[in-house]
Amino acid sequence: MMIAKMSRKSRVLPVFATLLAAAASDTPQAGKLLFSDDFTHGLANWRVELEKPGVVEAKGGILSMDVPAGCTVWLRRELRGPVIIEYEATMMSGGGPNDRVSDLNCFWMASDARVRRSGAFADYNTLRGYYVGQGGNGNTTTRFRRYIGDPVLRPLLPEHDLKAPLLHANTPVKIRLVADGSRIQYSCDGKIVFDFHDPAAYKRGWFAFRTTFSRLEIRKFRVYRCL
């Protein structure tokens, strides 16, 4: 019996290792560094849209957003795929008026004819691009949407409406976005949360951080070419 049990295990482990290797090879890898910002020289690389007055600044290695309502911070350069976007984000909580711990959000490969918006979330419906809201709705949902440029419709598939991962106060997480042809991914702390195949992929567009009624800190922003 002992010999049979060991033999079965020895067959299962190589299969499991093969599956892990296949999964790893299916994840795009970072190549040439295209752009980086360590947030030590102000907001020259970024454009801010605020629904209500708030504080958005880049200094000391941190892009900080301390806002009472909608806030979108656009990178001032268009990205052309295939690209990988990486950064570290922390939802701050220490008794401040905006310390809600909700809405670690982002747009990528986004485009639209309009140049500037108000910061109110509904004002972005006409975008075409990808969006993730992690810990949205008071830190109860994590959702992926493919915006289609419709002023009303923002399609949400059931498999893209999750209850995890959510956000933890004062805890840095590493975010990784992929736009590699038809492969669109969102990862948090090394775990793929959304892995979307888009046969009509958006292959160029703009990136933005997005939050609302929160205090958010961003560090170590990087854009790479996919290998």
Structure description:
By secondary structure, the chain is mainly beta. The chain has one domain (30-226): Exo-inulinase, domain 1 (Jelly Rolls, Sandwich). The chain has two helices and 14 strands; from the N terminus they run H-E-E-E-E-E-E-E-E-H-E-E-E-E-E-E. It has helices spanning 2-25, 136-139; strands at 30-37, 46-50, 55-59, 62-75, 79-80, 83-91, 104-111, 128-135, 141-148, 161-162, 173-180, 183-188, 191-197, 204-226. Strands 1, 2, 3, 4, 5, 6, 7, 8, 9, 10, 11, 12, 13 and 14 form a 14-stranded antiparallel beta sheet that branches. It starts with a helix and ends with a strand. Residues 1-25 have low confidence and may be disordered.
* CATH class wording: Mainly Beta
Helix/strand order, N-terminal first: HEEEEEEEEHEEEEEE
What is the SS-derived class?
mainly beta
Strand content: over 45%
Supply the number of structural domains.
1
Give the second-level CATH assignment, the architecture: Sandwich
Radius of gyration: 19 Å
Q: Globular, elongated, flat, extended or rod-shaped: what is the shape?
A: globular
Q: Stretches where pLDDT falls below 50 for ≥5 residues?
A: 1-25
Distance between the termini: 48 Å
By CATH, the topology is: Jelly Rolls
In CATH terms, the superfamily is Exo-inulinase, domain 1
Q: Helix count, per DSSP? A: 2
Give the biggest sheet. Answer: 14 strands, antiparallel
How many DSSP-defined strands? Answer: 14
Indicate the percent of residues in helices.
10-25%
Mean pLDDT: 90
